[in-house]
Amino acid sequence: MLRKFIKLALLSSLRHNPTDVVNIYDTFSDLMNITTGGKLLNFGYWDKGVSNPFDAQIKLTKLLGELGRFSNAKNILDLGSGYSVPALTWLHSYPTAKIYCINLSLNQIIEGKAISDQNQFLENASSKLESIESIKDRLFHINSTSTFLALKNGTMDRIVALESAQHFSPFVEFVREAWRILKHDGMFVIAIPVLVNKPPGNLIPLYELRKLGILNITWASQHYKIEFIEAMIKENGFKIDEVVYIGSNVYQPLANYYNTNRINLRKMILNHYPNFLEIVLYRSISKMKRASERGIIDYALFKAVKK
Fold it and tell me: pTM of this prediction?
């Protein structure tokens, strides 16, 4: 396990290969599920009333739907859809929408479809939601890369990437595909970890990676600066309508939750993983918190409209 962990982390950081990213998530998604209590793969949005990771993840999911005005959308493309829980959440909130889930991980596509069929996607949430009718007619799963999509031009009202766009490489190809597939005046929204106040260049130097903590693993591909993302969006046919920075509601409260509940979380982790992995996780989360407090990283929500 130790050798596999080190190998995956190094390969994903150095090669920026999409296959390595898939392997990271397929290997350690169970760890995320244990520590959060659900099948979402994001850090969550922690505000008043949120006391656990799963509710924070659902909160971030809903926040992105509100930002992207999904209530006015008929066809939504979810890129990097994970286990389809965000899509199911949006289907519940927006009953006229159809959602197309794109994911490079076939394992997550298969398990996401099973979760959809069971229709019990929020069993761990504090607020229970009723089952969704006619899911099969409104939810579709596609195993594909996010930078080369077999979809017709101008067919989507919205494109969403919830904590997945940092894995799309080259990033510019993702933006161009989004422009091609969106209808006129369609929009895409992304939630993404970003670098701020770093040296010149679009990516973080290798010697700085150690400061990112767990982000160096879960952010296991490109590490983009905020200016680079904005430039790619503007230069490829989009108008940035809104940028919201929520890092203070993401990294620090998540780390505080883990520190407060470490004893219980550690017991659950050790039932499935060796001791060293929990130690790495704990230290990494602490580094991530310090990086946020020092202004090295932030977390941004983008809304962009096709010109």
Answer: 0.85
